[in-house]
Amino acid sequence: TARESQQTTSSGGPAASAAQQQSAGPGCARSRTGYPQVELEGATVGFSQSEKETNPFRTAETQSIRDEAAKHKVNLLVTNAQSDLNKQISDIKSLLDRGAKLLIVAPLNSDGLQPAFDAAKAKQVPVVTIDRKVTSQPCTDYLTFIGSDFVEQGKRAAQQMIKATGGTGKVAILLGASGNNVTVDRTKGFKDGIAGTPGLTVVAEQTGEFDRSKGQAVMEQLIQSNPDITAVYAENDEMGVGAVTALKAAGKQPGKDVKVVSIDGTRTAVQLIADGGYTAVVESNPRFGPLAFDTLEKFGKGEEIPQNIVISDDEYDTTNAQQKLNNAY
Amino acid sequence: MTLPATKTDTKTATRTAARTRWLQDNGVYVAVVALLLFNAVFTSNFLTLGNFRTQLVQAAPVLIVALGMALVIGTEGVDLSVGAVMALAAAIIPLYLGAGPLLAILMALVAGLTAGAFNGFLVAKVGIQPIVATLALLVGGRGLALVIADGQLVQLHDPAFLALGTDDLLGLPISVLIAALLAIAIAGLTNRTTFGRQLVAIGDNRKAATLAGLPVNRVLVGVYTLCGVLAAISGVLATSRLGASDPADMGLLMELSAITAVVVGGTPLTGGKVRVLGTVFGVILMQLVRATLIKHNLPDSIAQMIQAAIIVAAVYVARERR
Amino acid sequence: MPTETSAGPVIEVAGVTKTFAGVRALDDVDFALKRGEIHALVGENGAGKSTLIKVLTGIHTPDGGRVTRNGQISTIYQEVNLVPLMSVAANLFLGREPRTRFGLIDRTRRDADAAELLRGYGITADVTSPLGTLAVGEQQMVALARAVEADADVVIMDEPTSSLEPREVETLLEVVRKLHQEGITIIYVSHRMDELYRICDTVTVLRDGRNVHSGPLEELPRIELVSLMLGRSVGEIEKHGTTAFGEDHHADTRPVLEARGLTSTPRINGVDVSIRPGEVVGLAGLLGSGRTETAKAIIGALPLDHGTVFVAGKPVPRNVKAATRAGISMLAEDRKTEGIIPNLSVRENIVLAALPRLSRFGVISRSKQDRIVDTFVKRLRIKVSSPEQKVAELSGGNQQKVLLARWLCTEPRILLLDEPTRGIDVGAKAEVQALIDELAREGLAVLLISSELDELLDGADRLVVLRDGEVAGELEGAQLTREHVLKAIAAEVMDDAASHQNRHQNSHQNSR
Amino acid sequence: MITQAAAVRTKVLQRQGAAVALVLVVAVSWLVFPRFGSLDNLRDLALQGSFLAVIALGMTFVIITGGIDLSVGSLYALGGVLAAWGSQYGFLVALALPLLVCGAIGLVNGLLIARTNMAPFIVTLASLLFARGLLLAITDEGATTYQIAPDSAFVELGRGTVFGFGYPIFIAAVLCVLGGLVLNRTTFGQNVFATGGAEQSAILLGVPVAKTKIRVYTVSGTLAGLAGALTAAYLQSGVTVIGVGTELDAIAVVVIGGTLLTGGMGTVVGTVIGVGLIKVIQNVINQIGTLDSNYQSVVSGVFLLVVVVLQRTLRR
Ligand SMILES: Nc1ncnc2c1ncn2[C@@H]1O[C@H](COP(=O)(O)OP(=O)(O)OP(=O)(O)O)[C@@H](O)[C@H]1O
Ligand SMILES: Nc1ncnc2c1ncn2[C@@H]1O[C@H](COP(=O)(O)OP(=O)(O)OP(=O)(O)O)[C@@H](O)[C@H]1O
Ligand SMILES: [Mg+2]
Ligand SMILES: [Mg+2]
């Protein structure tokens, strides 16, 4: 059939190993929290996913947690908050209620999960947050954060952009959803990244809401009013792919006339690079399973856990897209 | 208690009345012209063929949905499920695309028809309020689409199917042509056919229409079914344009865009009246507003507030006077 | 509001003009209401009576002229204007509910007061049930009670008796007299001459939005009043009688309509009606006796527990569409909610039910439509500025004619008329009655429901009398007299109609 | 009399269709899911329900007048942001600011609807957009999330408990009781019913229809703002991503509770029951645990349908 299977086969790409960095501040050991020791094998672990698994990132993320849980023979409980913050709080409370002794949380938002963390604290359950950093206190409210540095991602996208354009050009930014701190960080990182390159100017920044068709529609408008756009920075792959469709329809050659750089590392975008119709993708690594369970295991053993564990993000560009294609999710 | 003598000149009064009435009927056209003029002057590269083409292509799917919505609103109903139906159509396309685009499109339309008929059944036969009846499908329909698609976006490669969204016919993009033809067909349907007049009568006074022996249930089921099919057509076209089946985002909030366009076009939500040309211009107006805001690179916050103001202004002008 | 005790008029209107979208409803009208009088306001349909009232009460602002009010006005509007979903008691006291010590509405007291009050008007319905469950006539009485209890100086009644039964009319007239004795001033709009001459002191005649006569009613002979209203000479009018019905009809074939055992508890119970082609059968009964329900059951608009309707011997499925196809048409009692499609034009309202016949493959033929509409506008003398005028803009009587036209153009075999002359002026009424006659002569089977006894006696060939949703008797030929009918209706002779107490007991018995 | 008893029984069923459904669902959940009945779970259920209940209370008034208020979701989010921002100036500002601003937007809704004869659906749809835009504007396009000091009195409003039941539960309960009294036992309440039952008649009966509508939308806006403020206090921050689609939840809840969307009829009790039903079902879906997230919305849709059809069938 014409249906292209997008099933991610396994979560364990090579990028799953972490380049751990310990940031400022003391680490967190179990002794400091006074939490009881929990033997990982056979334990009940709760995972609260924030959004529906309809985008490749979430699919890969949940799958990674599930795979790793199976490896450690833990009893995994999974909930999905369906983008509803109040539901995520309820979800986490219900996970605790259902006997979860360890928690992995993919927060929907940086703020607002305090009541859930308080509930976990009351039951002395350590919480590992992944992919999005929350504003609560590490070690007291939650154990540690494992994830990418979104600002850094934006900076790396900027570097790719400077490299591809040679430092001159007019850039359109396709922003993520308004009010979302991923959007905020990726915008900040990118702008900081090109700050030292006066040849690159941002001529438009409009939200495509992380959505492919919105990205396409916005790009269609921008290419009409600013026909001299030479580069597009999309804050996720979906919008970037949408922009490619719009550029092609306007008679431009994406990747050549107009450079396209985005963040995520989905199969579709990386394939486009390999095919020569896309410039670069900065990966946002969704494979948190191994790191998350490792961390929980270490914590159980009483080892010191750093406040932030940064997962290593790969990069795809025209030089490596073909051979790294299988790493894309 | 005495009211002072107000011997107004009735002639001027009549003339003012006539002028407000004219504006009330034609406000949306005036607004479109005004916005075009504004852009011609203040927006760079606006007066190009390519730009108009873009606007039309983007407006076409909304228009197709809005046409169905206008009919439903004419019966004093509303269909909140159109976006979900678009998602269903999108989810179904890749399942059958292997057997040829025609079958795939047909199956998508069948899904729209089924969904619409189901809505119609709930509204007409079970007697549930349209908002609630279609809300159920709004909530569940997209979920169903995601279940069908296994929650995945699927890239499409069938060239014949993709041509629907990218190619021209008679110098016009195919989707625009289809939208135009559908608009003409719906205009004929409302004004020239028994079905159309019965629809409006039902919207105006359902009890009286029932007692007049009109086939109320049949018309209602027909209207919702038509709306479902139109939403599915729109879903098919949008999918082909996107080059991917994306049930998670396809048609998101389309119900609100369509309702806004219909109402801004002068069709009252109280039923009993359908303005097809007004709906076409309502869609164009909202499209132009969005385009203008993007082209002037306004931040999302300002853009949303301006859209709100324009909706209120347009509906204010077109409102029925007491 | 303080009432000035000056001897001047309570309400005075000078040079008032009111125009609606091209229609001049009121044209330089002068009008004065003297304290304590009962002032009749008469005129043809669309003469501007309701509009004048709405100007007096401040609902409409006049385009020009002066309105002076020296008192509190309370109005019963032409169409029942209450809230159907709210309870009877809530409607009655809306805006002046009795309070508890804490300032909250005292529902117990409100309901008790309402029941007590309505008993005085012969209504024993449950005051906590939604108003909409009452028959139209009963609702009208509630509206009356509400208006009267409002402690007003002026009570305006726009056709209050048009949906009332003779006994209720008596109650109402008695209320009017009582108010009069209490010094309250009354404006009384009605198309029924008898009532006017029984109670009114003064009369104002409107014609085409102009005041053509104001003066004492007594001095004005009936025939002259009618001539003023119609703008025709006395001689022309003298030719007509009280009703315009002709001779009995020849109806000797088998019934075209047979309804057997119509039952829909608790409203109707085993009603049988049959009508032969060319026959006019009247349905008589008190308010709430189930006449409207019977008609609705026949047309299939009422869910039935039992009973079948046969047309020409064949059973008809129980829905309006099938009944219409079988040739049954019904002119509904409540034209506002069950009749007109307000925002459609007169033309579209007329052709509505006949659309399938006027179209081909679902596409409507405009020329056929225009021809039919033209015919009926002329034949029924519907007063419109153009067939494209919105039907909501017509006066009540003209709306009624539009609805009649709607049914006539479906060329029905059986016509159910529920209060067909309600709210219609004398001229139009005669026309409608003559029309019914003519239709029957052409072979139509007619079921006539009317609260006016004369209309039933003169118009019907046979009367079916309903009581509490059951057939209480059938009257034919020589039995068609006032006495017989009243006896059948109320199961006793109504010589003591004046006594409240009695009537209360009667209706109590009746309802059980 | 048998028929009368039966009639009374049907009447009770008609009125309490949602209540019957709620009792059934709760009973089944209790038996099937051992943790459903745990005190912790019930506390969380009540707390989650209380925010929605406050919004739905305003919506009940609006819908009884025959209107609809689509702006409450945005106002809910806006209220939270304003409260969080205001909390730096103390408890009073944190509480008053969202009430005032959201109330003012509700007032504008009411004025536009009552004075210009524009459809409530479209007016409030516009203010849905407007309030979102305003929210983005004051948060620097969503970049800033205002935090509330964890030890402030305002946080206590959202996080404090009595016997483990959060303050918002009691606030919502008091408001609902008050709302019920206002609706049934005051002139304003009667005017609300009259306005929705037959607007034209209500005008002729001397009901201040325009004023009633203006008040109702103001109340709805204010309550949405209050719900936002309470949520902010509970979350300790003015989260910008909440409230999307909350208006539909509120409408669904009110309708499930038996309030007629055409206006003229409805109860606060019904609305509270509707909130209970929706939250219990959500909770049960969570208890099942293994349900694929895509099926969750299918289940919600089907459930909504079942309740509404059930209710409709009972009413016949
Ligand atoms: N709201 C309106 N819009 C347009 N025309 C109106 C409106 N109300 C009344 N008219 C017109 O004004 C004229 C007078 O109407 P009105 O209702 O006052 O008549 P009426 O004397 O009460 O008649 P009836 O005895 O039939 O009730 C009619 O021609 C009617 O069509
Ligand atoms: N919708 C309803 N629900 C409940 N009871 C009703 C309803 N409509 C009418 N009834 C009751 O049914 C009985 C018959 O009413 P119906 O309208 O048939 O009387 P009628 O003889 O036609 O009186 P009218 O003179 O008003 O035409 C009355 O007791 C009335 O209260
Ligand atoms: Mg009148
Ligand atoms: Mg009747």
TrEMBL record, chain B:
Tell me a GO cellular component: plasma membrane
Location of the protein in the cell? Cell membrane
- Ranges that cross the membrane: 28-49, 55-73, 80-97, 103-124, 131-149, 169-189, 216-238, 250-269, 276-295, 301-318
Does this UniProt record's set of keywords contain 4Fe-4S?
Answer: no
What are this entry's molecular-function GO terms?
transmembrane transporter activity
| Record keywords, A-Z | Cell membrane, Membrane, Transmembrane, Transmembrane helix
Keyword Membrane part of the UniProt annotation: yes
How is it placed in the membrane, per its record? Multi-pass membrane protein
**Pfam families for this protein:** BPD_transp_2 (PF02653)
Q: Which PANTHER family match?
A: ABC TRANSPORTER PERMEASE PROTEIN YPHD-RELATED-RELATED, GALACTOFURANOSE TRANSPORTER PERMEASE PROTEIN YTFT
Report the protein name in the record. Answer: ABC transporter permease
Q: Which organism is it from?
A: Lentzea alba
TrEMBL record, chain C:
InterPro entries xrefs: AAA+_ATPase, ABC_carbohydrate_import_ATPase, ABC_transporter-like_ATP-bd, ABC_transporter-like_CS, P-loop_NTPase
SUPFAM superfamilies in the cross-refs: P-loop containing nucleoside triphosphate hydrolases
Name all ABC transporter domain ranges.
11-233, 251-493
Provide this UniProt record's keywords sorted from A to Z: ATP-binding, Nucleotide-binding, Repeat, Transport
Q: Which Gene3D superfamilies match?
A: P-loop containing nucleotide triphosphate hydrolases
Q: Name one GO molecular function term.
A: ATP hydrolysis activity
Matching entries from PROSITE patterns are given as: ABC_TRANSPORTER_1, ABC_TRANSPORTER_2
Q: Supply the PANTHER family for this chain.
A: CARBOHYDRATE TRANSPORT ATP-BINDING PROTEIN MG119-RELATED (PTHR43790), GALACTOFURANOSE TRANSPORTER ATP-BINDING PROTEIN YTFR (PTHR43790:SF9)
Kindly provide the name given to this protein in its UniProt entry.
Sugar ABC transporter ATP-binding protein
The organism's taxonomy opens as: Bacteria, Bacillati, Actinomycetota, Actinomycetes, Pseudonocardiales
TrEMBL record, chain D:
An annotated GO cellular component = plasma membrane
Keywords attached to this Swiss-Prot or TrEMBL record, sorted alphabetically, are: Cell membrane, Membrane, Transmembrane, Transmembrane helix
Q: How does it sit in the membrane?
A: Multi-pass membrane protein
Please list the GO terms describing molecular function. transmembrane transporter activity
Which ranges does the record mark as transmembrane?
12-33, 45-68, 89-112, 118-139, 160-183, 214-236, 248-281, 293-310
Q: Where does this polypeptide localize?
A: Cell membrane
Keyword set includes Cell membrane: yes
Supply the name of the protein. ABC transporter permease
Originating organism: Lentzea alba
